[in-house]
Structure formats: C-alpha cells, structure tokens
Amino acid sequence: MRQRRPLPTRLLRSLAILVLSWFALSWLVVLVFRFAPPWTSAVMMERQLSAWIHGEKDFQLRHRWVPWSQVSPYVPMAMVAGEDQKFPFHHGFDFDSIQDAMDAADEGKRLRGASTISQQTAKNLFLWNGRSFVRKGLEAYFTVLIELTWPKQRILEVYMNIAELGDGIYGVAAASDAFYRTPPSRLSAAQAARLAAVLPNPQRFRVDRPSPYVLGRANWIQQQMGQLGGPGYLQGNQEAQVHRQR
Predict the structure, then answer these.
(1) How far apart are CA 124 and CA 142, in angstroms?
(2) pLDDT score at 235
(3) Parallel, antiparallel, or unpaired: how do β-strands 164-166 and 62-63 relate?
(4) Quick one: 183 exposed, middle or buried, by C-beta within 10 A (0-12, 13-18, 19+)?
C-alpha cells in the first residue's frame, strides 16, 4: 500500500495547483478578449452593484461596443494626448511618470496619477476601484498580460469602449449617443477632446455641462493632438511596432 504524503505536502501541492490554474485561467481570459469584445467590465459591474445597494432607482448603465473602424480617429488620439502621450512607446508602464509622482509625493505635493492607458484598461476590465497594494499588484500583473498578448491598437480599442465618460456611461459609443446625439464615427476633434477631458474624474466632471477646468483641459488636449501630429501619430507608430515585431 502506497504511503500517503504528509498533510503539509498535500496542502502545498493543492495550493500550487490552484495558483497555476488561476494564472492559466487569467491568461486565457486575456487571450479571449484579444479577439472577442468584452460584454461588460469589472468597473461596470461594481457601479451597477453600488446602484442596487444604494437604491438608485433612476440609475441606468449605458454601454455599447463599437469596433475601431467605426470610431472617429480623433477619439483614440484625444485619449492618448490627454492620458498617456508615451503610449505607443512604453510596454505598459511609464517609469518616468511614476518617478515624478513619487518625487512630488515626497515633497508633500498633491498625489497625482501615473497610470498608463494599459494600466487603466487592465484595472477597468478586470479589477475594482481602490488604492490597495493587492489591487495595484493585480493591475500590474494584468497590464503585463495584455501588453504581451494584445497589440497597441487593441488596448486602445478596449479602453475607449469601457472607459467611464459619465455617471453610468461607459465607452465612446454610449457617450457620443448621450452627449452629442451622433455616431462615434462622426465625432470631431473638439468633441473627442472634451470626452477625454473628463477621464480623470468622470463622476465629478461633465461633458454636457463642462466646467471652466474641463473646457480648458479640452483645449489643451486639442492642442496636444495637433502638436503630436494628429491621428497619424498613432497610425505611424503602430506600423513601426508591427515592423519591429516582424
């Protein structure tokens, strides 16, 4: 009769199987979303759950997926100009911005974000809002996964489809319907810039009733779009990335 392994050994083996299974499953989900449109996101589900818990009877979550080809080229350009101008070049993390944020915190200045579009996509799609070390660790993990598995255009496509652009309004399609009554393919540079201007805090800032801050930020984003070279900034760098991968 074969002797049974000691209990600690069996527990460690079971734990190792669980951990490896979780890593495999998480990568499989990321791989699936490389091709299939996400039907929802963790942040959307969190917001819907919050509305149910707090009895927000008038709350309506609005979201509609739209492919890259049916979105104005000004939209991804505005998001890159406003949120992450180094997006075509980094591999998920902007270490210069992280260092600047740490230096500012050490000097007692207001804490500022240093998350890239890749990190925000990972957080919005798979995780929850918050600032815990556990969530940041998982965010880094999923950021690495999507950077290894998805091309840059796919990351931007998912981001602009799940980013919160108003209370209960997720993605460029729902936002263009709600605020401009026009399809996302017809959004102008100014309209795209105003959408991107509320991304730091869409619960506070409004596209339809913009504060002076939002108007000023939208103007700055539009200027940055021009200085970076317009939509060609993304197209040219995406083509260069494909060439390097070959």
Answers:
(1) 11
(2) 74
(3) unpaired
(4) middle
Query: 74, 231 in Cβ contact below 8 A?
Result: yes
Tell how far CA 20 is from the center of its chain: 26
Q: How far is CA 179 from CA 82, 155, 188, in A?
A: 19, 24, 13
Burial of 189-203, coded b for 16+ CB within 10 Å and e otherwise, reads: bebbbbbbbbbeebe
User: pLDDT value at position 197?
Assistant: 96
Distance CA 77, CA 229 (A): 10
How many residues are recorded in the chain? 246
**pLDDT of res. 156:** 97
Q: How many whole angstroms separate alpha carbon 66 and alpha carbon 108?
A: 42
* Bridge partner residues of 62 (DSSP): 169
Instruction: Tell me the per-residue pLDDT of 121-180, one tens digit each, with 9 for 90 and over.
Output: 999 999 988 778 888 999 999 999 999 999 999 999 999 999 999 999 999 999 999 999
Q: What is the pLDDT of residue 241?
A: 52
Pairing of strands 169-170, 164-166: antiparallel
pLDDT lower than 50: segments of the chain: 1, 240, 242-246
State whether the Cα torsion 148-72-161-36 is positive or negative: negative
Instruction: Give the per-residue pLDDT at 164.
Output: 95
State the angle between helix axes of 7-33 and 117-126 in degrees (0 to 180), rounded to the nearest 10. 110
Whole-prediction pTM: 0.86
Q: Which domains can be identified in the chain, with CATH numbers?
A: 11-245 (1.10.3810.10)
Cα–chain center distance at 56:
26
